[in-house]
Amino acid sequence: MTITLGEGRTPLLEAPRLSARYGIELWLKWEGANPTGSFKDRGMSVAVTRAVEDGAHTLVCASTGNTAASCAAYAARAGLRATIVVVRGAAAGPKLTQVRAVGGEIVEVDGTFSDAFAHAERLASEPGHVLVNSTNPHRIEGQKSAALEILEQLGSPPDVLTLPYGGGGNTRAYALGFGDRLPRFHPVQAADRAGTVASAIRIVEPVHRVDVEEIVARTGGSIVTVDDEQIAAARDLLGREEGVFCEPASAAGIAGLERGTASGGERVVCVVTGHGLKAGA
After folding, report:
1. CA distances (Å), 165 to each of 18, 48, 206, 273, in order?
2. Looking at residue 279, what is its pLDDT?
């Protein structure tokens, strides 16, 4: 039995005003349309389905917020427990509200995301527990479906793919999904990874850093760094010009376009990873 909440099949939206602004053909992969409001649901469906098949009774994850909400929701759907490890004070309130609403248990730790992840790994080592962070290969398999959808929706791969860069799992997933039809990858990270307002990418040590660097090099892309002011401006621009309300981290790809990641006339897909209602004020 597949554990699902109806994830995937999200819109690929034309962005005519931003296309004119940047002199490109821009499309927005709107992942905020997933059931818990972020792209995490794609991989969580696959990971939780496999966990059920393997007889697990508890899901464990470390999270900045979106994985937490997704893990807890899919655990509830499957009749499992969910233990969510977060850095104290670092996750957005609405995301933790989602966790509590579906019965997830929140464990707070001091330190950084790396500390939270280490604690989650220890908890997941217990019998019947499964770690559902992006180090779980089933998460990546589920998330790569977004790239397959883009190929179907466009009819061919874009010239450029730009997306937020926190832990790097999504970059890896898109590369797997595109296979040998890779666009040029431009993952966009916050200049202050430890304290950025874009809490969804507030990860100091990306667990998939080596993979991301290899993908970027292989496709002739670049890792783009932007500051919080640029992220906030991109979020406002996306809302006012195209009517898409996203959380701050989700606008990172748009902020990257301001740094010249695409050339005139190129077809670009910007992955908008999470809904604005998940971030609070």
Report:
1. 21, 24, 8, 11
2. 86
Check whether 218 has a pLDDT greater than 90.
yes
- pTM reported for the whole predicted model: 0.96
> Using CA atoms, how far apart are residues 159 and 151, in angstroms rounded to an integer?
12
- CA distance readout (Å), 67 to 42, 60, 239, 255: 11, 10, 24, 23
Q: Are 187 and 163 in contact (CB under 8 A)?
A: yes
CATH of domain 12-39+139-278: 3.40.50.1100
Both tokens of 121, joined, read 């790994």
Please check the confidence at residue 30 and state whether its pLDDT lies above 60: yes
The per-residue pLDDT for range 122-145, each reduced to its tens digit, is 999 999 999 999 999 999 999 999
Closest by CA position to 40, among listed 281, 280, 278: 278
The 10 Å Cβ neighbour count of residue 265 is: 9
What are the sequence ranges of the domains in the chain? 12-39+139-278, 40-136
